[in-house]
Amino acid sequence: MGLEVIPINGFIGAEIRGADLARLDDAMFKVLHDALVQYEVLVIRDQKAMTLDHQMAFGARFGPLSIHPFSPNMEDKPEVILLDYSADHPAARTDIWHADETFRPNPPIVTILRARIIPERGGDTCFSSMTAAYRGLSERMKQHIHGLECQHDFKPWRNLFEGSPALRAKLRELEDEFPNPWHPVVRVHPVSGRRAIYVNRQFSVRIKGLKSDESAALLEFLYAQAAVPEYQLRVKWQPDTVVLWDNRSLLHYAPHDYYPQRRSMERVTVTGDIPIGVTGEYTPETVAGNGMVNPTEAPKKPPKRHFERTA
User: Fold this and answer.
1) S-S: 81 plus which of 12, 71, 197, 239, CB 3.0-4.6 Å?
2) How confident is the model over 70-108, as pLDDT tens digits?
């Protein structure tokens, strides 16, 4: 039986039916790859036969797996991140809109997350399409951010290195290993060619060439686009659900609304390439995306007042 790709929302997300990620041939992988580029988030349920080795092998089809320098990795499989939160280990750093690891010069292409233990209530993950967000901007705003660059930093983890001289020395080493990269504010997807807003509150620091207050104001405006409901998808987890998302074109947010219940996930990420932005003189985007976005606000005709009405 072939795979079914069923769009979920108007702008983002698709559910995949008929997939067994433990037994995936090349033709099926191409369907998933193309669907991921098109819909940005794929939800695949009931993957009971999928082992951790299968998950790693699936990720490796997209490219080499990466090792996160700060997250809790498995000792024998450092490419795997264990996200296991409970009353004894409350969740942290996920309740903010972000793309994974943009503090790297080459942030991950794809993130693959598998649910093991799910709380009775809460624990969803929210996604927001930054390609739809870009298309929703006015042409004047698109021209304004055209060609801009933003600096990124591993700022959420800097407090881990406070205190001892040894920790501060380790911080200096990590700063050398992960020097603050400059990424385009508008990224061009290397496969689809679609443009996406490529800043996020967790890792973005400042926009090159702007004063600090100008940079902060523009970044706040761009961050706010993730909160537009039309661009969003909210995934409700079940045990053995696998979700993969295109880290090049969207942001995600995991609410901390399940404490003190337990939520346990296993994650792998795929090493990416250096983000490429728009270049040259501004021209409107010509690559179509999901859904129809009206980037202009039509003037609203006020209702007639009582004395203006005619019989």
Assistant:
1) 71
2) 888 888 999 999 999 999 998 887 899 999 999 999 999
